[in-house]
Amino acid sequence: MAHILALDTSTDACSVALKSAVKTTDLTSERPSEYRYNRFEIAPRKHTHLLLPMVEEVLAESGLRVADLDLIAFGRGPGSFAGIRIATGAAQGLALAFETPVVGISTLEAIALGVLDIEPDAEYILAALDARMDELYWCSYQVVEGVPIALHEERVSAPDDIQLPLETPWIMAGSGVAYLDTMSHISGSISHSFKDVYPSADKMLQLAQREWDAGRLLKPEEAQPVYLREGSWKKRDEQ
Fold it and tell me: What is the pTM of this model?
């Protein structure tokens, strides 16, 4: 069982989560136990001030050091351009000193996984984030054995251009729900909607464990954000 740290600053939420593996105090058992440590705060434009102190807090609580980490996961996007860069840079900075592997986690997939805490029997989920400029980042998922499986690539488009791949009841989640009233072409297929589901680091731990098990890991210098909207990350005078 790996020691995994996850970071996310892709939305108004700033979150850090740590999963550690330690042996139980039961002398008759050598089975590893899983311990989780979480920090989560809705704090627009405060991510740079909160993220590393949160990391320090969960490490102190767990008794681990950065050198003990087996994997560092980060919310690679889509989401806030500045936020994605903060998490990517922090993951790289923490990983470089010890050449710790890193992995980027889809923020939309983390939202879809978060829906299952609210609706455990959900089968089809539309995860959507407000991309500004009257557009949404979105992806649709089918839940298979408790895991959201993407039905297509992540996309950015106007709300009117979103098309659900199957005619079945859907649950919509994420800040993109704010546009649902203007999406009459699909609103009839949305059975429930949850605006306040964020791509939390806690959910990214589960997705990161999957990547660890599969060996799909990156070197720190290979960590890259996913913007979807090409060019929009540049400063105005660079465009």
Answer: 0.92
